[in-house]
Specification:
The chain has about 475 residues and is of the alpha/beta class. It folds into two domains: about 15-140, 3-Layer(aba) Sandwich (Rossmann fold); about 175-455, 2-Layer Sandwich (Dihydrodipicolinate Reductase, domain 2). The protein is built from twelve helices and 18 strands. Strand 15 (about 365-370) and strand 16 form a beta hairpin. It is globular and about 80 Å long. The protein binds NADPH dihydro-nicotinamide-adenine-dinucleotide phosphate and the ligand O=C1O[C@H](COP(=O)(O)O)[C@@H](O)[C@H](O)[C@H]1O. Ligand LXAUTJHC binds near residues 211 and 213. Belongs to the glucose-6-phosphate dehydrogenase family.
Length: about 475
C-alpha cells in the first residue's frame, strides 16, 4: 500500500508537519522563528500540522502556536491564518499507520520537521522508507546529526533513500544568524580586508563562544554530548568554514556549500595531536550575575559518574595554501563570565617598525561579534596616540552590524519553505565535522587529556593557548 499522495504540483500549498510538536524546541525556537517569518508576509499558503505522543486537541495546539507567535511579537495576516488554521494529530511517528495518517493529512507539499529525540528521528526515517514520500517532500533534521562520522554517514544513506540530498535541510541555527553571514559580507565586499586574510599576514584565528548560561535543566541531552559535540562539532566548525573558505562565485547553495566543504575537508587537529592541542574542563559551584550555580556534577539529572565537559578547546589547522601554518583556536564553554562570543583574527607584527616609534607592542586584530547582539565589527589598530607623536596606542574602530530581518530559526525556515538549502548543512560536511573532532573525542574518552575544573562565573581554567603553540610570524 502506498501513501495517498496529496497534490503538490503547481500550487504554493505546503504543510509544515512538525514531529515533536509538544517539545521544547518547537515552543521556544521553532514556532517563534516561524512567527517572525510569517510576520514578514512570507509563507502564503502554508498549513501547520503538529503531531506528538500527547493527546492534544487542535485548540490546545493552537494556543501553543499563538503563545509562541506572541512571544516573537509576530502579527499580520499570515501569522493569523497559520495560527487559527493549525491542526494537531496524536501520533507515534515510529508507527507506520500513524505516519501514513499524518502524510495523508498534509495539504500540498509536506515539509517534515523532525523536532524529536535523535533515536526517534532515525526510527521514523526507517519506517518512512517502507512507505515512500510524496514527490518534493522536504526533510528538516535537527542536531545532533549522528553521533560520529560513521553514524552520520549511515543517516545520510537512509535519508537519500527517502528524498534527494537537496531536499534535506540539516539545521544549524548559527548559519541563520545574520552576524555569521556578515562575515561573508565583510570578507568579500572589501578589497582592503580579503588580501590580508591568510597566512601571509594572520598570526592566529580565535573562534570563541563563552556563554554565561549553565546547564539550564538540559542534562538529559547535554550530558551525552558535552561542549565539544554541542558547540564545536556543529556551530563553531560552521563558523570556521565561513571564516576560512575561498571566495564563492555566488551565494547560491551549490557554490557556498562547495566552498565550505572544501575548507572543512582540509581541517584537522593541529599537528594531529589532540592530547597537546585540546583541553576540556567543567564548572564547579559559583556565581554569575548574582545567581548561584551548583557544580555541574550536582546539577539535576547529571549521573554521578559523568565525565562530561562544559568547556572545550581545540586548536585546528586549515591545511590549505591560504591558511597552512595559522592556528585556529576554537573554544566554547558554559557558566563563564564575562561572556565572549566572537571571531578574532590576530595579525602578525609589522616586519619592521621604524626605530623611534614606541608602544607598538600589541597586534592588530579584526573581530566579529557573533550572536551576542548588537553585534559589532571591531578593528584594533596601532596609531599615533595623543601627546607624544612618536608613541603608538592601540585604538578600536567599531561598526555595528544591523539586526537581521529574521530570528535565526526564521532564517532557517525561510530557506526550507523557499526550497533554498544554502543555510543548511550538506551531508558530506556533517560527516566531516565529526571526522575533525573524532581524534579529540577518542583522546578524551581514553583519559589522555585531564578534565580540568573552573568555578562558575570565572573566565575558565586559564593558561590557554598551550605555550608551545607557534604563532605564525612570517
Ligand atoms: N530544545 C532545544 O533548545 C534544542 C533542541 N534541539 C534538538 O531538537 C530535537 C528536539 O529537542 P527538544 O524539543 O528539546 O526535545 P523534547 O524532549 O522537549 O521534545 C521531544 C518531542 O518528541 C516527541 N516524541 C518523542 N517520541 C515520539 C514518538 N515516538 N512519536 C511522536 N512524538 C514523539 C515528544 O512527545 P511527548 O512529549 O509527547 O513524548 C516531544 O514532543 C532534538 O534533536 C534536540 O537535540 C536542537 C537545538 C536546541
Ligand atoms: O545549540 C546550542 O546553542 C546554544 C547557543 O546558541 P544561542 O543562539 O542559544 O545563543 C547553546 O547554549 C546550546 O547549549 C546549544 O545546544
Amino acid at each position: 500500500m502506498t501513501v495517498p499522495h496529496p497534490p503538490t504540483g503547481g500550487s504554493a500549498e505546503q504543510t509544515l508537519l512538525i514531529f515533536g510538536a509538544s517539545g521544547d524546541l518547537t515552543a521556544r525556537l521553532l514556532l517563534p522563528g516561524l512567527g517572525g517569518l510569517l510576520a514578514t508576509g512570507r509563507g502564503k499558503g502554508l498549513s501547520l500540522l503538529g503531531s506528538g505522543m500527547d493527546d492534544w486537541s487542535d485548540d490546545r495546539w493552537r494556543k501553543r502556536v499563538a503563545d509562541s507567535f506572541a512571544a516573537a511579537r509576530a502579527t499580520g495576516p499570515e501569522v493569523e491564518a497559520v495560527a487559527t488554521g493549525a491542526r494537531y494529530l496524536r501520533a507515534d511517528v515510529t508507527a507506520e499507520t500513524d505516519l501514513r495518517r499524518l502524510l495523508g493529512a498534509c495539504r500540498g507539499r509536506p515539509i517534515i520537521y523532525f523536532a524529536l529525540p535523535p533515536p526517534v528521528t532515525e526510527r521514523a526515517c526507517h519506517v518512512l522508507t517502507g512507505i515512500g514520500l510524496p514527490e518534493g517532500t522536504r526533510l528538516v533534521m535537527e542536531k545532533p546529526f549522528g553521533t560520529d562520522a560513521a553514524s552520520a554517514r549511515a543517516l545520510n544513506d537512509l535519508l537519500t533513500r527517502l528524498v534527494p540530498e537537496d531536499q534535506v535541510y540539516r539545521v544549524d541555527h548559527f548559519l541563520g544568524m545574520s552576524t555569521v553571514l556578515n562575515v561573508v559580507g565583510a570578507r568579500f565586499a572589501n578589497r582592503i580586508l580579503e588580501p590580508v586574510l591568510g597566512n601571509q599576514h594572520v598570526a592566529s584565528v580565535d573562534i570563541v563562544f563563552d556563554e554565561s548560561l549553565g546547564l539550564e535543566g538540559r542534562a538529559g541531552y547535554y550530558d551525552g554530548a558535552g561542549a565539544l559535540v554541542d558547540m564545536v562539532q556543529s556551530h563553531l566548525l560552521q563558523v570556521l568554514s565561513l571564516v576560512a573558505m575561498e571566495p564563492p562565485p555566488t551565494l547560491q547553495a551549490r557554490d557556498l556549500r562547495d566552498r565550505k566543504a572544501q575548507t572543512l575537508r582540509a581541517t584537522r587537529v593541529w599537528r594531529d595531536d589532540p592530547v597537546a592541542y585540546s583541553r576540556r574542563a567543567r564548572y564547579t559551584a559559583g556565581e554569575i550575575d548574582g545567581h548561584r550555580l551548583p557544580s555541574y556534577a550536582d546539577e539535576a539529572g547529571v549521573p554521578s559518574d559523568s565525565r562530561t565537559e562544559t568547556l572545550a578547546e581545540v586548536v585546528l589547522t586549515v591545511d590549505t595554501w591560504r591558511w597552512a601554518g595559522v592556528p585556529f583556536r576554537v573554544r566554547s564553554g558554559k557558566a563563564l563570565s564575562p561572556p565572549r562570543k566572537e571571531i578574532g583574527i590576530t595579525f602578525q607584527p609589522p616586519p619592521r617598525v621604524p626605530t623611534g616609534l614606541a608602544g607598538c607592542d600589541r597586534p592588530d586584530r579584526l573581530r566579529f561579534g557573533i550572536g551576542f547582539g548588537p553585534d559589532r565589527l571591531r578593528l584594533d589598530l596601532n596609531i599615533n596616540g595623543p601627546g607624544d607623536p612618536r608613541r603608538i596606542d592601540l585604538v578600536t574602530l567599531e561598526a555595528e552590524f544591523g539586526p537581521g530581518e529574521l530570528p535565526e530559526y526564521g532564517e532557517v525556515l525561510k530557506g526550507v519553505l523557499e526550497g533554498d538549502p544554502t543555510l543548511s548543512v550538506r551531508g558530506d560536511t556533517a560527516v566531516d565535522c565529526w571526522r575533525i573532532i573524532e581524534p579529540v573525542l577518542a583522546a578524551w574518552h581514553a583519559d589522555e587529556v585531564p578534565l580540568l575544573t573552573y568555578p562558575a562565573g570565572s573566565s575558565g581554567p586559564g593558561g590557554w593557548p598551550p605555550s608551545g603553540l607557534p604563532q605564525r610570524t612570517a
